[in-house]
Amino acid sequence: MLEFDGLGFSHDPGQDPGRWLFRDVSHKLAPGEVLTVLGPNGRGKTTLLRCVAGLTTPTEGRVRADGAVGFVPQSHHTTFAYTALDMVLMGRVRHLRALATPGRRDHELAYGALGRVGIGHLADRDYPTLSGGERQLVLIARAIAAQGPVLVLDEPASALDLRNQGRVLDLLRGLADEGLAIVLTTHHPDHAMEIADTAMLMFGGTDVRIGPADELLTDSAVGALYGVRAHTLVLNEDPGGAPRRVIVTRYDQELPS
Ligand SMILES: Nc1ncnc2c1ncn2[C@@H]1O[C@H](COP(=O)(O)OP(=O)(O)OP(=O)(O)O)[C@@H](O)[C@H]1O
């Protein structure tokens, strides 16, 4: 379970009026729930995620989680020559006694997590030599190996190719179905429609809308959020199966701001 209540953040709260990135944001995620956060660049998605993960202190409000919150940053660089396996083993740290080194079970879980994100073959590679997408997969594996009940991921698919985007979305949905509560940001409404139970649209300041993803993610809401024209397409890919709704945008048709 993850709950945030009255969450607000401003870099200059003393200003009148204060310039709030977001304010009065509340939601309670049940185990198994995926919440997807959408909003334009600079709207405060990363700041909100960092508040939820306990890495940034919110200006207002509080966060409560049943257990450790795993955080997967948008990108990560290190010059230290850790291997991919070492990076994933770091996710096990809170399970180790003081000064203990990872044991057989930790290694099994780390290899298992690398396998789950499809990069078991990269275990012994030096992390700084991996591509951006490969590094993103290592960080997701690290969060999986940590075995916490809550995962918070900042644009986890941003550096991934189309096939790996699908794999990671499937993986996250699968982890939620195993009982994890998951919060992620994305710039792709389709990713939200694919896996989210709940969507959060950050229109700015106090206008932050939270609700069931299939109700909130309409072409008019997505269009208004980004200032573009958006259209819904209904795909009947599987005869006898439920039609799938996707939102496409016309990049050449900005709405007047
Ligand atoms: N120290 C600071 N002082 C003032 N503004 C800051 C400071 N640090 C960050 N900001 C601003 O806060 C805003 C929110 O940043 P944040 O990274 O949360 O946005 P985001 O929605 O995740 O953006 P993106 O989609 O580009 O990743 C941005 O406009 C950023 O420039």
From TrEMBL:
<dbReference type="InterPro" id="IPR017871">
    <property type="entry name" value="ABC_transporter-like_CS"/>
</dbReference>
<dbReference type="Pfam" id="PF00005">
    <property type="entry name" value="ABC_tran"/>
</dbReference>
<comment type="similarity">
    <text>Belongs to the ABC transporter superfamily.</text>
</comment>
<dbReference type="GO" id="GO:0005524">
    <property type="term" value="F:ATP binding"/>
</dbReference>
<feature type="domain" description="ABC transporter">
    <location>
        <begin position="2"/>
        <end position="229"/>
    </location>
</feature>
<keyword id="KW-0067">ATP-binding</keyword>
<dbReference type="GO" id="GO:0016887">
    <property type="term" value="F:ATP hydrolysis activity"/>
</dbReference>
<dbReference type="InterPro" id="IPR027417">
    <property type="entry name" value="P-loop_NTPase"/>
</dbReference>
<keyword id="KW-0813">Transport</keyword>
<protein>
    <submittedName>
        <fullName>ABC transporter ATP-binding protein</fullName>
    </submittedName>
</protein>
<keyword id="KW-0547">Nucleotide-binding</keyword>
<dbReference type="InterPro" id="IPR003439">
    <property type="entry name" value="ABC_transporter-like_ATP-bd"/>
</dbReference>
<dbReference type="InterPro" id="IPR050153">
    <property type="entry name" value="Metal_Ion_Import_ABC"/>
</dbReference>
<dbReference type="InterPro" id="IPR003593">
    <property type="entry name" value="AAA+_ATPase"/>
</dbReference>
